[in-house]
Structure formats: C-alpha cells, structure tokens
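Predict the structure of DNA helicase RecQ.
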Amino acid sequence: MIAEQEKLLQTYFGYESFRPGQKEVINHIIHTNNTLAVMPTGGGKSLCYQIPGLSLNGTAIIISPLISLMKDQVDALQALGIPATFINSSLTTEEQRTRLRELEAQRYKFVYVAPERFESSMFVSIIRRIPIALVAFDEAHCISQWGHDFRPSYRSIVPQLKQLNNIPVYVALTATATEEVISDIQSMLDIGAEHVVNTGFERENLAFHIVKGKDRTSYIRSFLQEHTDESGIIYTATRKQADSVYEQLQKRGISVAKYHAGMSETARKQAQAAFIHDECSVMIATNAFGMGIDKSNVRYVIHYAMPMNIESYYQEAGRAGRDGEASDCILLFSPQDIQLQKFLIEQSLMDEPAKQNEYKKLQAMVNYCHTQGCLSSFILDYFNDTSLKQNCGRCSNCVERLEKTDITEEAQMILSCVKRMGERFGVGMTAKVLKGSKDKKLMDFNLHQLSTYGILSAYTEKELTERIHFLVAEQLLATEEGKFPTLKLNHQSVDVLKGKRSVTMYTAPIPTSEEADYQ
Ligand code: ADP
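Done. Here is the predicted structure for DNA helicase RecQ.
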C-alpha cells in the first residue's frame, strides 16, 4: 500500500523519497489509526496528512491556529493542482458562504480552518453530512494545557468532533512536545503508544550559542555588520523591547522590519511580506511572529532576551535553517531577564497550578543559560530525546576556548552559606550574604550575623549569582519551585561539602580586542 503513497510523493510533490518518520505516520493514518507525529520544524509534517488525505476517500479537515499559515498551505496545494481552500475570519461573509457551499458539494480535498470555526453550527452540520477523510490538528501542542501555547478553543472541539461519528481518523502534529504534552494529546485523541511517531528533535544544522555580559545592542550591531547579506530574526521578550531595538538599528541605517501584536494588521502584514520576500533582511519581533511562517533561508535567530521556557525557545530558534543549511541560534542572556519573565508569568491570567508549572519551566530555561555542558544535548534531554549520543560539537559551550578552573572551595562556601541561611532564600539574597552586602532586607533578617557573611567578598555580586546559577544548572544545588525559588541542598551538595566531589567551572574566555570594544 505504501508504494502507492510513494508514487503520490513523486508525482504530486516531486520528491524522491520520504523523510524520517513520514512513511510510518502515513502508514498509520491510511490504516485509520489515530496518530501523533512529533517532528522538528522543517521535518515535513504537512506531507504526513496531505498524502493520506489524497488517498483516503472524502475531505480532509485541517485545524490550524494561525490564519497566515493556512493561506500559504492552500496556495501550495492549489499550485500542485489539488483542490484546497481555507475558511476563516479573514474572508467576507459572502466568500465564507460560497466556500461552505462548495465544501458541502464535496469539491475540496483539503479544507483548513481555525478552531473557532467549530462555533458555527452551519459548518459543523456540513461536516456531519459529508464524507471526511481525516481530521488533522496542526501545532497540536495547543490542545494541551501543559503546552506552551495552550488554546482552550482547540481543546473544546475534541468532544464536539467525537460526537459527529463520521471522522475515521485523527492526526496530531507538533514540533514541540514534552512527555506530559504527548500523553495529554494521546488521551484527548485516543492515540495508542504504538501510533506515536517521534523522530527526535535534533537539528544538525543549528549551532546554539549563549552570550552573557555583553551590551546587547552593540553585540547585535556588530553581528549584523558581519552578516549583511543574510536573513535573520531578532526576538525580544516584550513589544517595548522590539520598538526600542528597531529604533536603534534603524537610526544606524540598517534595513529592519518589525512585528508585534501592538501594531495594526496592515503594518504587520507589510512587515511580514517584506521579510518573506527578502526586501528586508532583519525582522525584529515578539513571539507573535513566526508560527507557521515558512521562510526557509533564515540564517540566524537572535534572542535579545531569555524567553519563558525551552519549548518556546526551541520553536523560535528553530525557525532558522529550515532549508538544512548551517545556521546560528544566539541567546543574549542578562540576569534581569529572569525577573522580567517572572513578572510576565505573575501578570498572566493563568490559575495558580498553571503558574507553578510555568515557574518550573522557567527554571529549566535559566539552567540552560548557565549550563556548561553541550547546549544541544541540554535541549534534547529536556524533551527526553536520547538520540544524541555525544556532544554536538557546534554550540558555544562545545567550541569556545575556555579555561577550566577548580571552584570546589567557592562551591563549598556557597553551599554552607545556603545551609546557614536555613535553605529559605533565593539566589539574589544568597549572593548578597556571600558578598557582605549592607542590603536592608538582609539586615532585617539578621543575615549579617552569619559566619558566611562576606566570605566571598572578593567577588562581585554578579559573579556570585553566576556561580550559584551554575551550581543549580549542574544539579549540585536544588531549587524549590515557585515564584521565588529558594535554594536547598541535595545529595550532590552534601558530597561537595564533604569533599567527596570536586567542582570545575569554565571561566569566561579572555575577550579579543574587538570584543573588548563593546563591553
Ligand atoms: P514542518 O511543518 O514539519 O515544519 P513542512 O511540512 O513545512 O515542515 O516541510 C518543510 C519543507 O520540507 C517544505 O518545503 C516541504 O515541501 C519539504 N519536504 C517535506 N517532505 C519532503 C520530502 N520527503 N523530501 C523533500 N522535501 C520535503
């Protein structure tokens, strides 16, 4: 049977062979097994439902959270001579009606809709009456409340669909899924473990970098000077940051576009079009930009600030290099990013358990910024992907020329300070005590009376904070999750304190004269 699908791949799409995982997913779907495909960005998820959609009888309904994505997909299918359309709020009521009539007349093989479409009883009643090939959930992590982009409207349509009784098979597709999200999607859509196809997340053409302690704007300016002919995205954590980076770069005569949810739809569309068509090489944007944007030649993605969690980071950074060419993903980290993200979580409308979950994910992101291990391995470990057997050899931690220093003694001092502080405080206050700060809150808590007060006063508070974060990232010190994570000792801390284990840390490379200029 799969030979027939291979033929479709060649005749319709003009590709020689399947990419990893595609054949398996297609095979499950054509045998009407509900299937979950977890593949990296650019892995070729669309073909996984398009080929079965062509070979199964009836119309394939694809539910997608983003309107911009639908048009591109439909245009691509139509260009291949496949009858496809989308029905969404960007169309006039008249046009929507026309397309609904054609849907009812079974003129389409593929129909793309947003989850909100299921609020229309007319649409639902048509779906109920016509033969359906499959229902696919693109960006399926949006179904899960554990996903980083949960959309309640996505989840609520599942029971509605199940009542229709004429959907032969469900397909879920995502590039980011942690274990909890995978099992949530499985139970929502009745997907057996044998029908979860997870190809692993590694993107061999991406090199991850963490940059700390540099002036971000100067770093970006100098980076752009060296990459004038390349396309790239600079993600900021807030609209305000996007506006200010945009202004600063524009003032210097760099051709930049800007995209965030505070802009008018027309302005956003123009910016997006200019970037996609290479009229403008740099896009400054918040996370509102990108989902579903299929621009294959993005050579770098710079995060101006640390994002909220690793799922978002990997998805945004992963917009680089969809064409398979070597590309860079650079995260500019500054300690105040942590405060900003906490503030954003606190301000959100999530309930308390969901917020706690976000704090947990934020901590993993902070650990990523402080690990000294391979960055690709760190990300893959986070997604429980064990396919990478050795360090990537491409990320900044793998390649930078760093000097290894034994910091066992400092680590012991930090750990014993945490202990003496009653394991009741976070990173900031611990750094202040070690430094011997005159902070009022510190005095109010009588922490200046501790024997470890000022014990590492030769270091700056920033260096101490850095070392404490490093101990957490290396799991030599634990944190209690929450808005104000308190530091706690664990088994490994005890080993360090007892001298059973030494601690080494790479110290920052000596800046070259060029780098020193903008520090
Ligand atoms: P995803 O949705 O997983 O990010 P897409 O479905 O957009 O990825 O596919 C990414 C690109 O790879 C598209 O340009 C697509 O046409 C191409 N592609 C998909 N499958 C194959 C294949 N088997 N051989 C060659 N190219 C493919």
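The chain is about 45% helix and 15% strand.
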